[in-house]
Design goal:
One of its GO terms (molecular function) is propionyl-CoA carboxylase activity. Pfam families: ACC_epsilon. This is Acyl-CoA carboxylase subunit epsilon. About 40% of the residues lie in helices and about 5% in strands. By secondary structure, it is mainly alpha-helical. It has a domain at about 5-50. A two-stranded antiparallel ribbon has the order 1-2. The longest helix is centred in the middle third of the chain and has 15 residues, at about 35-50.
Length: about 80
């Protein structure tokens, strides 16, 4: 009853014209439903994707005060317009 491996490839619209899309994976046992194949494809795509880069958050008030406290005195005077 098994029809052999079920090849799974990206959609045809992602492949350049005239070229066949490369296989992502092949099911060698069982008869997966389209929903199961979609779920497996989503998991494989998520694992292979690079992690999202988070933007650095603005320093909190406490961090700004601490940085100002640790800053050398001559830098504070320059910042206020004195030298």
């Amino acid at each position: 009853m098994s029809a052999g491996p079920v090849p799974v490839a990206p959609s045809a619209s992602e492949a350049p014209p005239g070229e066949e899309a490369p296989l992502l994976f092949a099911v060698t046992k069982g008869q997966p439903t389209p929903e199961e194949l979609a779920a497996l494809t989503a998991v494989i795509a998520a694992v292979g994707a690079p992690p999202a880069q988070e933007e650095a958050a603005a320093p909190t008030r406490r961090e700004r005060i601490r940085q100002a406290t640790l800053r050398p005195r001559h830098m504070i005077a320059q910042r206020r317009g004195r030298q």
